[in-house]
């Protein structure tokens, strides 16, 4: 388990002010108490200069917000110590939590819905709240057009809200009506305009109660699983000429971010989102730049032109109205509406922007902090996927509408302007993408290899690089590698990291065969073909090779679902520095600008206006809006809220599998999801409902197996659905026996022993004895009813007769019906009228001989696994029928070629033919009777004429690669690791896999000591340092561990294993 924490000293300040804190990576086994690392946390904070060095006798007190944590009872990875949490030492800090704290006494909320410092949410608890640019303001706004103390919002004792202008320079309006020095009512839903910012009031008790929040479930390892996805309400047209109110109920919960950003009567909050219908953009305001003029969206044919054409257009005529006051780059924005397909849409009475496909940034924050129902609502095939809001347009009566861009249509987006405003806009865009698209639908890659002339605030960066500007981005779950990338996070702060990230992306282009002609001219990935990728390119990539590669990605990447967000630091566009000059300067900084389908240029004297220009679009009519940006503190708070969250397995399965290189070795328990093989975990697996095969009823015995790790996840085989033998072939040393052991273990892990029985046959004999000989080691599984080591002809004939008799008994029992039909009828007949019978049967009585005996090998080479009073299967037919349908029977045969063609001196040669004939009968008729065959051969030429070979549905070739399969960098020529194989399905592609090992000793992970190391964001893009995992020399094997857990689980479930064949 690894979690990332930020440690503050006793005077660390507010929760957001973590620049003086120390980011650390804590590695520990699950369930480790906090006391095990408190000393290391204090030492790390002292080394970073954020806390004094602890004395030998000092007790290190750890606080989460204002709550002191019990170091002995609080475990690492359990809330509040989840990934991204902030803790302080020796004293409390301002409240900080991934959950919600009561917002008692709050009567209203102020949402900063638009402007250069958007996204803030402030609680109003009564009294006067001053809004302005000064740090003395209760609600500070980083907007140069806002006065130091601009206006005052007052909440009376009766709950009424009024606003008063405090003598501001640029004035204050409420829904377009000017406000002076006398109080003016501020009704719920009204838009308060001050400077370039827009603030909306959410008031009333109902607005603070009942906001829906998605439930989360801690996994004990620092993550919070979103256990339920709340579907978005269907689109509904807004009421014309109305402004939506505060919405439905909202819970009386909020998490304060601490004083300083709203002291006095106001404080920032963290809440969920009201669950109300959200009209789509096509019935309200526009959704952005979709099809630039000059291109035909129907056939994808682009218009002509390039950077030179853009410059010629930008240097041409201006609108008839002439330039404005210079703050917007020469064109007024009052008449510009939302844009879709380059055409204005919407109407003055459109609904507020938070109700459309482009929610305002305050709603984005609430979705993350709740988490609210809009969190991760969009997949790769969502109609509004990758639609982002760049700014806000003023409309009639003080209303606002978003100006947005669809990255799928634009292909790649370029942003240019002064760095402080440019970073604020980039943070806004990335926050929208991360909030609306889950990690299963979107990954974000950062390329920031160049040297930054200034930090996030415009001052010099301490290390001369861009890392301080993007440290917040590393908390987002969308930056975790999920395609086999060799890094800890998808970051690149130097040229080596940038080369690795671009190589990974270019490899995807090659895999997809992408050779598209340009950006925005080919559709993105088809639904189900894979997640989307947004690559942030901050400035010059570095080398000439990287520039060429990034330009190629911008040009051809959109066809493979790869979209670039290119940032270029340039002066703001003004009448003295027109758009053409700004665009040319941006292309010099970032050559990929030349092929971006749309660019956003910051304009005006203070760079608070954004103009969106598309390829082949007349710049005279280019959309213009006030930029929507967010602060670095806002971005870090947002990213930390998302850090511990992850999607449910169902949500992950909706995204296409991401191919990764095959490992050289893997544990079967990891592929089964049983890293902790406990009886409770096995009981849960056995109780899971499974999708029945075609024509079968639900709740029937299953026979699903996991072969190992594939390029897109575990490689599985379903013996019920495939209805035919499985034939494994490979030369000695390729891992045939280990694969059979893994198949036996995975089959047993998927079904109870009273519903699935295993028969183990070692065709080569006992193999000389020892714990690792043949399939004998699988005899400890409670499902293993019979073991035969070929060598004694008497026992071999007895086995052949017993197997043939079992087939005949089942044929007589089922008649003309297949096993599934008979089992479904028997199950239905035994269900009570009130409903289906429970999966767990009553415990066994001691008189039934439930206690298993000690397995021992007879002198004839047959392992009698359990001594019980039950007769062999043929004699126990009546008892089996009384207990329900017989279990599925799976035969695993190793060295099948030796049985087919034994050597002259083989002692089992006289009876080998009878065993082979019985196995051939299983191959021909076993699937209908619920009997399945898995055979391994080292000489396929010897077994080619057997029924097992003729009837085989699945074939596994060990020691060979599948054509086009991902290769491990160490695989060269014939140097394939043992267990590397290929699964062949009829009529389907070959699937490469690495066999899951089950007989290896358990690793020493349980003995690892907890560690705390400083988190170096600049090195997060390097390949992870892999500590070699050593096996316990005298410890149990994974198979023994699994068998022991299965025995206990079977006893708890009352699942009586099937009787042996003989």
Give a verbal description of the structure:
- This protein is α/β, with parallel strands linked by helices.
- About 22% of the residues have low confidence.
- Helix 3 crosses helix 5 (419-436), helix 5 (419-436) runs parallel beside helix 10 and helix 7 (495-512) packs parallel to helix 8.
- It folds into four domains: 2-89, Roll (Ubiquitin-like (UB roll)), CATH 3.10.20; 108-209, Sandwich (Tumour Suppressor Smad4), CATH 2.60.200.20; 272-298 and 328-653, P-loop containing nucleotide triphosphate hydrolases (Rossmann fold, 3-Layer(aba) Sandwich); 659-689 and 699-827 and 850-1015 and 1029-1053, P-loop containing nucleotide triphosphate hydrolases (Rossmann fold, 3-Layer(aba) Sandwich).
- The chain is elongated.
- It has 22 helices and 46 strands.
Span from first to last CA? 47 Å
Number of strands: 46
- Counted up, domains total 4
**Helical amount:** 10-25%
What number is the mean pLDDT? 76
Organism: Streptomyces carminius
GO molecular function: ATP binding; DNA binding
Protein name: Cell division protein FtsK
InterPro entries: AAA+_ATPase, Cell_Proc_Reg/RNA_Proc, FHA_dom, FtsK_dom, P-loop_NTPase, SMAD_FHA_dom_sf
